[in-house]
């Protein structure tokens, strides 16, 4: 009986010792699993942060290089502009590359949509691409802040129907162009006193009667139309 009792006690001790040795290993395994779970949870967030990039904006430093590359493979050269008075189409000159690329780029970005012909000078020009709506300022901010160098020595004149780019009004002794705006000459046969100072970069090839309708609208102080004239859509066409 004593031997059997001793034997039973010995067996219980062995089981207890084995259980004690196994517990740390089990805890370690559980800890490792917990750490792996933490890693697996953190990993997607870290990947998302790495993949997230700053939105691209144009600046004075990158604009020339960007439009030089953008224009290399650019085949588009026509833009149709639609208003409540109808549509007209402009064709852009290939050898005025920065202004052409800029106009196509802004059109494809949807910038001109819902901007206005905010300046109408009788028998002279209509000027578009701006508005006092906050949405226009927001779009400009998202695209970037930059100016374009003048390119007025390609031999183009400001004939009637010419689309040209106004110079910026702020700190601009070199007549750098304001990239978000444009004007179209309505004078017959043209407004040649503008030659050499502004950059003609295309011409109206269809719908000049719509341009004339816009120019005929009643305006107030600062040549701003009494009734807003929105560009409802600007789109690249073949």
Automatic annotation (TrEMBL):
<feature type="region of interest" description="Disordered">
    <location>
        <begin position="27"/>
        <end position="48"/>
    </location>
</feature>
<dbReference type="InterPro" id="IPR029000">
    <property type="entry name" value="Cyclophilin-like_dom_sf"/>
</dbReference>
<dbReference type="InterPro" id="IPR020892">
    <property type="entry name" value="Cyclophilin-type_PPIase_CS"/>
</dbReference>
<dbReference type="Pfam" id="PF00160">
    <property type="entry name" value="Pro_isomerase"/>
</dbReference>
<dbReference type="InterPro" id="IPR044666">
    <property type="entry name" value="Cyclophilin_A-like"/>
</dbReference>
<comment type="function">
    <text>PPIases accelerate the folding of proteins. It catalyzes the cis-trans isomerization of proline imidic peptide bonds in oligopeptides.</text>
</comment>
<protein>
    <recommendedName>
        <fullName>Peptidyl-prolyl cis-trans isomerase</fullName>
        <ecNumber>5.2.1.8</ecNumber>
    </recommendedName>
</protein>
<keyword id="KW-0732">Signal</keyword>
<keyword id="KW-0413">Isomerase</keyword>
<dbReference type="GO" id="GO:0016853">
    <property type="term" value="F:isomerase activity"/>
</dbReference>
<feature type="signal peptide">
    <location>
        <begin position="1"/>
        <end position="21"/>
    </location>
</feature>
<comment type="similarity">
    <text>Belongs to the cyclophilin-type PPIase family.</text>
</comment>
<feature type="compositionally biased region" description="Basic and acidic residues">
    <location>
        <begin position="29"/>
        <end position="39"/>
    </location>
</feature>
<feature type="domain" description="PPIase cyclophilin-type">
    <location>
        <begin position="86"/>
        <end position="236"/>
    </location>
</feature>
<dbReference type="InterPro" id="IPR002130">
    <property type="entry name" value="Cyclophilin-type_PPIase_dom"/>
</dbReference>
<keyword id="KW-0697">Rotamase</keyword>
């Amino acid at each position: 009986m004593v031997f059997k009792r001793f034997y039973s006690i010995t067996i219980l001790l062995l089981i207890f010792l084995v259980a004690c040795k196994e517990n740390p290993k089990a805890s370690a395994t559980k800890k490792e699993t917990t750490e792996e779970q933490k890693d697996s949870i953190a990993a997607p967030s870290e990947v998302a942060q790495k993949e997230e990039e700053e939105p691209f904006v144009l600046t004075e430093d990158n604009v020339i290089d960007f439009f030089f590359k953008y224009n290399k493979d650019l085949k588009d050269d026509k833009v149709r502009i639609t208003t409540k008075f109808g549509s007209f189409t402009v064709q852009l000159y290939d050898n005025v590359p920065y202004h052409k690329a800029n106009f196509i780029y802004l059109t494809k970005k949807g910038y001109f949509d819902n901007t206005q012909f905010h300046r109408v000078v009788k028998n002279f020009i209509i000027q578009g691409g701006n508005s006092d709506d906050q949405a226009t300022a927001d779009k400009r901010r998202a695209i970037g802040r930059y100016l374009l160098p003048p390119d007025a020595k390609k031999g183009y004149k400001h004939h009637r129907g010419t689309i040209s780019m106004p110079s910026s009004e702020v700190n601009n002794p070199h007549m750098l162009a304001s990239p978000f705006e444009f004007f179209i000459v309505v004078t017959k046969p043209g407004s040649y006193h503008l030659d050499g100072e502004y950059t003609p970069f295309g011409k109206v090839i269809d719908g000049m009667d719509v341009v004339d309708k816009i120019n005929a609208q009643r305006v107030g102080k600062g040549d701003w139309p009494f009734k807003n004239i929105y560009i409802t859509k600007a789109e690249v066409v073949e």
